[in-house]
Amino acid sequence: MNQLHIKDGRLIDPASKIDRIGSIYIAAGKIISVTDEPAGFQPTHVIDAKNQIVCPGFIDLSTRLRDMGHSRKANFKSETRAAACAGITTMCLQPDTTPPIDTPAVAELVRDLAKKAGYEQIYPIAALTQKLEGAELSSMLSLKQAGCIAVSNANEPVKNLLILRRALEYAASHDLLLMFRPNDFWLSNNGCAHEGAFSTRYGLPSIPDAAETIALAQCLELVELTGCRVHFGQLSCKRSVIKIHQAKKYGLDVSADAAIHQLHLTENDMAPFDSIYHVLPPLRSETDKQYLRHGLASGMLDSLCSDHQPHDLDAKLGAFPETEPGMSSLETVLPLMLKLVAEKAITLEQGIAALSKNPARILRIKSGALTPGFSADVCIFDPDLDWQVNSDNWKSQGINTPFWGRTLKGRVTCTVQAGRIIHRLEDF
Amino acid sequence: MPDDLQLNQEGKLRHFLTIEGLDKSLLTEILDMAESFVGMSGQKVKKVPLLRGKTIVNLFFENSTRTRTTFELAAKRLSADVLSMSIATSSTSKGESLLDTIRNLQAMHVDMFVVRHAVSGAAHFIAQHTAPHISVINAGDGQHAHPTQAMLDMFTIRQIKKDFSNLRVAIIGDILHSRVARSQIQALNTLGVAEIRVIAPKTLLPAHVETLGVRVFHNLTEGLKDMDVIAMLRLQKERMSSALLPSESEYFKCFGLTEDKLKIAKPDAIVMHPGPINRGVEIDSKVADGPQSVILKQVSNGIAIRMAIMAMAMQKQGLA
């Protein structure tokens, strides 16, 4: 049986408030001890983590691996390799695949593809409505039984508030988590850039932050009405963070994340008409960026997600508004988190918690902590190792990242998923 | 701004995509060169051999009569061979991407593209993806820029007012959707006018419009006071159906330029319009055809300005 001993690393586990040099003992896919060596422990592998940080494997609440209808953009094999190299051991897959995850058969197909790729911890998120059309409810319970961890309508609008109310009520009846990216379809008006000085200057169709905050406020009222557990994903602006904070203070069972690039880039970083910066929600103002950082540091925001969206080159070749939104972002998660720490926006413990303990709590899974009995999901990284984002190092099939060619600090040296080594950097 | 995209290493024009990033001396150089072409229209032989043997393709993804015609005439007067293509608004509906269209034409050894496209950034995209010897002239991209229109407006203003430094200019109408307004504002600021005002209801102004370097007015009477130049914008019919305005008649009542309203501006104020005019919607016929209107002068100047820009862009490519 596979037994792993990770030794001499700096263990950081926000869940148990551990920050010390030590060892982890793993057997049968589970963590069995983080203190003393268990009696009769016979490691098949010993990993020397000296001068490195050992923390829970990262959990990504929003990712897209393409494949199925879009394998020219990426596939499970390429993207799960990218995830492994990024220290990500659990991923939630958005339902807007082709076909969408709105039947148990598709959910099972996702799990099969994950298994074939040798990366098992992919949780499909079920479509909230059939074909994501926002009109009729999906078979949520069957989808849950087929392995879906939550329900969501991804970026597609729900036709009206009555349907959204019923979807929340139905999800609540089956104790399902609803993941919601707030976006008012009408107010966003097919826009592609933040409504501000930049969009004005370049004549780009714009999306006001109110498109997000109004949809968020409406959904929060429905949470109050229905008692559904809702996680708000990919928030992009200051007033959204404030609304989440108020809702939590009021006692609503809600949580929220932001895509990590939103804490680093703003509309001002966008080279004009460079489609690499075309993301939804759009990159917003400096004030918004700073407040997202503040929100994460103060606990108003619970977690960070990659919002990974790999694309083929053609998807980004065109006039800005006509290109497809999204960045390939799994592999920049750790360096961007460490950059927040280096810039003193958050502590290292907060950064790790935002990627492990907190998303695990939201998903209610036994991962995201170095707790005996939990799935042995571990990320080992060297916080000072520089690496260049280039074709030698990059594993995702999508190279649509604004960090291409740049040197980033912090690299994952080893990733363990359910007790199995799924990534090991050469020379480590 | 990708100003380096439109300038070569010596700071000369390679492409002409936007006014942004071009300095006063370059804009003045364009105006001066256009000046030398203006007299030509009256001559018996209306041609110079500056671009003889060159092939220019007018690539219009969006309908236009006036702009296309003046570009065509300008190219012909420079002795270039011109091909004008009107491509249905969505080339992607035919399955061919914008880039494929460009590459195909490039394979036919053309020297210059004049591009009009309904999407902001299209001209930049084409300039970034054409062979280095090809010049791209932006004839209007989405709501972003229409720099040749702005330059012909500057030329017309200079012809009449001589100097920019003391001028007060009002731009009236649908600023939100107007590539003309954005380019005019940049050109006027670069040439150093005293004041630029935009006058429109909030529904037709982009967010934070003041960051463009303009003063904002929602009332025509207040906004027109002391103005030397009044630049009207065309109001598209579809603005009524998208709830931006209640009706043409109400718009005319509030923002339509009539003889009475014109009296509020300086007595020697000039009235401009990029065309085509909606008579009785943004401007009264009496004003459009009146003594202060320079609208037809703008059209004639359009040819000279476009000749100047095409000649300069080709020259700096070392081809002319």
Describe the structure.
- Chain A is built from twelve helices and 18 strands.
- In chain A, helix 9 links the parallel strand 14 (254-259) and strand 15 (303-305).
- In chain A, strands 1, 2, 3, 4, 5, 16, 17 and 18 form an eight-stranded mixed beta sheet that branches.
- Chain A has one domain (57-363): Alpha-Beta Barrel (TIM Barrel), CATH 3.20.20.
- The mean pLDDT of chain A is 96.
- Chain A has 428 residues and is an alpha/beta fold.
- Chain B is α/β, with parallel strands linked by helices and 320 residues long.
- Chain B folds into two domains: 3-145 and 300-316, Aspartate/ornithine carbamoyltransferase (Rossmann fold, 3-Layer(aba) Sandwich), CATH 3.40.50.1370; 147-296, Aspartate/ornithine carbamoyltransferase (Rossmann fold, 3-Layer(aba) Sandwich), CATH 3.40.50.1370.
- Chain B contains 13 helices and nine strands.
- Chain B has helices at residues 3-6, 24-38, 66-77, 98-106, 122-129, 147-161, 179-191, 220-224, 238-241, 248-255, 259-262, 285-288, 295-316, and strands spanning 55-60, 81-86, 112-117, 135-141, 168-172, 195-199, 215-217, 229-232, 270-272.
- In chain B, the strands form two sheets. A five-stranded parallel beta sheet of chain B has the order 7-6-5-8-9. Chain B has a four-stranded parallel beta sheet with strand order 2-1-3-4, sandwiched between helices.
- In chain B, strand 1, helix 3 and strand 2 (81-86) form a beta-alpha-beta unit.
- The longest helix of chain B has 22 residues, at 295-316.
- The mean pLDDT of chain B is 92.
- The A-B interface holds A 195-197, 199-206, 208, 271-273, 314, 317-322 and B 1-2, 20, 92, 97-99, 117, 119-122, 124-125, 129, 141-145, 179, 182, 206-209, 211-212.
